[in-house]
Structure prediction request, 172 residues.
Amino acid sequence: MGFDPEREEEMDNMIIRHVKVEDVAELARIEAASYPEAEAASEESIRSRVESFPECFWILENDGEILAFINGMVTDERDLRDEMYDHAEMHKKDGKWQMIFSVVTAPEHRSKGYAGMLMKQVIEDSKGKRDGIVLTCKDRLLGFYGQFGYENEGVSVSTHGGAVWYQMRLVF
Prediction:
């Protein structure tokens, strides 16, 4: 791939940061545009998560525009369960496992590698603090997460939004 000066300029202004309360509405908009209604976290759910575990949100932004984000919670439980999505009080700050609820890129910014950039940061930030990371995904994304070292553990106990999910685990 050749040098693209516009892309280079775009990359110069990108930062990865943790969430701010002011981000909630935009995160809810991106989430709603990225998942079927039954699977997308509501603005209320996102707000509760932000209030309970802001350190478990990674935001990729460019000049103040949110391009992508990853969020989840920490727990000692080994498996991601549906109750975790809407019960922020289940978060255990010093837990063993970083759970990931959403890996989301705004529709207008997809296919640019942003989710991968964020995932690398989540992995780096979690190493040394956690035993590993657990997420669920649909079968079409098994290869995407596999490239980061996640292992497919088969169909998840989660039936979030009425979908079939596969649990993936990255052990440090």
